[in-house]
Amino acid sequence: MNLQNKLTDLKRQALSEIEQTETPDKINEIRVHLLGKKGPITEILRGMRELPKEQRPEVGSFANKVRDELTNAIDEQKEKIETLLTAKRLENEAIDVTLPGVPVKTGTPHIIMQVIDQIEKLFLGMGYQVVDGPEVEEDHYNFEMMNLPKDHPARDMQDTFYITDQILMRTQTSPVQARTMEKHDFSQGPLRMISPGKVYRRDTDDATHSHQFHQVEGLVIDKHITMADLKGTLAKIAQTIFGEEREIRLRPSYFPFTEPSVEVDVSCFKCGGKGCQVCKQTGWIEVLGAGMVHPNVLKMAGIDPEVYGGFAFGLGPDRFAMLKYGVDDIREFYLNDVRFLEQFSQKG
Ligand code: 2NL
């Protein structure tokens, strides 16, 4: 058999072998075996030495053609195998996006936070800032600046968690307001702020007392602030939490940091004012305390009470939530029993 026939034979055999190959390893093996230094093509080319000189170019070019054809066939088969493997892998790894998912159990804001959020939204809408501050406070900001002198009964060890004789757990959020008043630059405009947050009292926990609860205080300081501004603002709070139809009434009261001071009642959201269990037949429910900022408080913050005045109020989101949702034990808010908390899910 001449070399051309040998090459043609080899080609036919090799092509059929290549075509039947199914793995990348096997195709690499064929490549090395067929086209390598010890392979049949190299061997046939070596046999050209036996040929007469004039036949060599023709056989040589034929051999090169066969080698190129086989190289192409190997490359093509390799690509075919890889495409097939990729397709198979994609099929195996396919995700059915129409399958129902595993539901994720999400929580909901705590009911106290829901009340605070509502109040924040209302006051942000009226141009107030919402300000945070430390829960571990200095006696100076918590009491002194709020016009509670050293011998005042509210400063008693009995009622306050003292850390040292100067450091304590804040009993109100007013120290945040004291710090803000002190820093405020009135040439830039009035001060309008609320300070929501946790407060602490040295109480024994029971249905109506918790050693830690919440407060939102509000403060406006400007020229020409009157009690009418205060009353309108308080009515807005009452209506936001207890319903658009609510009215408020003010009764005289006493706080060291305001003068005059008032206690604020809201018309009963249960009976509308006719008298029922919730309002104890009075038609009114006490919901917060407020007043005009005491001149001493302004002075201590470096504000001239002859030029500036303001109003302030303090309310308890815990009490608001208890009233609004008929919760009769404040401790429910802090036990974190999911069965209690999820009754106030916002998801509906
Ligand atoms: C209440 C009463 C109140 C304030 C808090 C306050 C703050 C500054 C100046 C003056 Cl910086 N007053 N806060 C005023 C009146 C009442 O809280 O019954 N809270 C539960």
Write a structural description.
It contains 12 helices and 9 strands. The protein is of the alpha+beta class and about 350 residues long. The protein has 2 domains: about 90 residues, no CATH class; about 230 residues, BirA Bifunctional Protein, domain 2, CATH 3.30.930.10. A 7-stranded mixed β-sheet has the order 1-4-5-9-8-7-6, with helices on both faces. About 30% of the residues are buried. The site of 2-{3-[(4-chloropyridin-2-yl)amino]phenoxy}-N-methylacetamide has 20 residues, from helix 7, strand 5, strand 8 and strand 9.
Question: CATH class of the largest domain, please?
Answer: Alpha Beta
Mean pLDDT: 93
Measured between the Cα atoms of the first and last residue, the distance is 90 Å
Which architecture of the largest domain would the CATH scheme give at its second level? Answer: 2-Layer Sandwich
DSSP summary, beta strand count: 9
InterPro entries: aa-tRNA-synth_II, aa-tRNA-synth_II/BPL/LPL, Phe-tRNA-synth_IIc_asu, Phe-tRNA_ligase_II_N, Phe_tRNA_ligase_alpha1_bac, Phenylalanyl-tRNA_Synthase, tRNA-bd_arm
GO molecular function: ATP binding; catalytic activity, acting on a protein; magnesium ion binding; phenylalanine-tRNA ligase activity; transferase activity; tRNA binding
Family: Belongs to the class-II aminoacyl-tRNA synthetase family. Phe-tRNA synthetase alpha subunit type 1 subfamily.
Keywords: Aminoacyl-tRNA synthetase, ATP-binding, Cytoplasm, Ligase, Magnesium, Metal-binding, Nucleotide-binding, Protein biosynthesis
